[in-house]
What does this fold into?
Amino acid sequence: MDDATLQELGWDDAWASELEQLGEDNLVAGRIAAQHRGEFVLWTAAGELRAELPGRIRYDAGVSGVLPAVGDWVAARVRALEGRATIHTVLPRRSTISRKEVLTGSLPQVLAANVDIAFLLTGLDADFSIRRLERYLVLAWESGAAPVVVLTKTDLCPDAAEKLLEVERVAIGVPVHPVSNVTGEGLDAVREHLRPATSSVLLGSSGVGKSTLINRIAGDEVMRTSEVAPDGTGRHTTTHRQLIRLPDGALVIDTPGLRELQLWDGDSSAAFADIEALAADCRFSDCAHVHEPGCAVLGAVDDGMLELDRLRSWRKLQRELASIAARADRRLQAERKRRWKQHTRSMRKAKW
It folds into this structure.
């Protein structure tokens, strides 16, 4: 962290009001810039501090699922002589980029918090996948951040214009910028989205060029990168989420490549606005768009106005979101039941 003020890190009167409402005079504001092995790097008015969590927050997270994440504003108690702090409260988030934790878990994993823009990076090489991009768009729309699609490696793609049209058909109402980190093509268009004291996050697969893009925009090597592989593909470099302040004052969160993206929660209507618009003309208001008579969505598929693969992708996401919601509900019920039993046992011991 340089000599940036809290305001230059995104702090404002609304955040100050949230801190004041806690009613404790010994708390200071800080923004989480990174996490390392259970500790957090906290940017405060007193400089950069190492911070830890009290057991209370970890315990409560068993039900709420809320643990501090990079980008969060927190209230903390500072031990200035030690250069350390203890996080007391995570202030309410304005936006949350989260996915379901990997494998069979049912808790959310927050990738970034309090960002204004979510840059969704897809390479125009073997990484290119429209179906995966649809998932990124659902994730971004539901987060509260504004999505921006960045198509990297235009210098490696002879049919970039064709793929751009393909992306624009699914990224409805979303800016799409083809870029090359080698030639610099399209970088100015990406820079226009960055403003001092505003925050953004870069999301994409490993090797898609997130760290290199940050370096090109910054005009300096602020993030470590690796040489590309012999086939021209990128190599994974970023190992943890990290908040970076660019020379122009914009704040960017770089993230490790996502090997999988299971959605945690959300409404896919914004990312599938074309299907939602067609569904308004279905004969039945609860039409599932599978085999119902008078289904405008199926009619659009028959007429060639809507790709069948896109409808299948929408159906898959609906099933996935419903399954996650049911699993999360069962987990919450089980955790509350466990804690109630624990409380009852402790009360009985105290009585005797």
The CA atoms of residues 226 and 260 lie 22 Å apart.
